[in-house]
Amino acid sequence: ISPNGSHVVSGGCDNDSNNGVAHVWELSSGTMVGEFKKHTFRIMSVSISNDSKKVVTGSYLVNERSYLNGK
Questions:
Q1: pLDDT tens for residues 10-40?
Q2: What DSSP state is assigned to residue 69?
Q3: Maximum Cα–Cα distance for the chain, whole Å?
């Protein structure tokens, strides 16, 4: 859950390819507002910055990516 309480990020894998995928959800409406599909393997961890503007995800390969910006 983001520090400002507006969003939550879930991470896992795409059922078809087993590639990592993260979803950003707006808590007030329950609507998915973002999807991130840059990992080769399942996402194992997610973290949201203190200002709620960035998300870092990590997979088995330890390659990290930034996503949510400006929310």
A1: 988 877 777 888 889 999 999 999 888 877 7
A2: -
A3: 34
pLDDT at 36: 83
Quote the CA–CA distance of 20 and 47 in Å, as a whole number. 15
Whole-model pTM above 0.85? no
The DSSP annotation for 19-51 comes to -EEEEEEETTTTEEEEEEEEESS-EEEEEE-TT
The yes-or-no verdict on residue 4 having pLDDT over 70 is yes
CA distances from 20 to 49, 50, 57, 63, 68 (A): 20, 24, 9, 11, 16
* Among candidate residues 69, 26, 19, 24, the one with its CA nearest the CA of residue 43: 19
Nearest to 20 by CA among 43, 4, 48, 3: 43
